[in-house]
Amino acid sequence: MIALKYSIDRIEEGFAVCEDENGERINIEISRLPEGIKEGLQISINGDEVILLEEETEERRRKLAQKQRELFERKRKRVD
């Protein structure tokens, strides 16, 4: 079985709404997920096993922060 990677988009009503890199969404019961799970974390699902991908989560956060800085700088340059 191939491991599938998802990002936790949001948590609602006992489920984590997860999105893959193609934008496909699935709902996973919170009880199936590792303790401390929250929005924005990257996970891998292989059968019944769910693994928190800490390095990929940090890399994604770094990339998003960089994009935010770039957008802020562009907006600031237009205002100046």
Low-confidence stretches: none
* Annotated CATH topology: OB fold (Dihydrolipoamide Acetyltransferase, E2P)
What is the oligomer described by this structure? single chain
Q: In what range is the share of β-strand residues?
A: 35-45%
If strands are numbered along the chain, what order do they take across the biggest sheet?
A: 3-2-1-4-5
Question: How would you explain this protein's 3D organization?
Answer:
With 80 residues, this protein is an alpha+beta fold. It has a single domain, classed as OB fold (Dihydrolipoamide Acetyltransferase, E2P) (Beta Barrel), CATH 2.40.50. The chain is 32% helix and 35% strand. The protein has 1 helix and 5 strands; from the N terminus they run βββββα. The chain has one helix at residues 54-79, and strands at 4-12, 15-19, 25-29, 42-46, 49-52. A 5-stranded antiparallel β-sheet has the order 3-2-1-4-5. A hairpin with a 2-residue loop joins strand 4 and strand 5 (49-52). The longest helix has 26 residues, at 54-79.
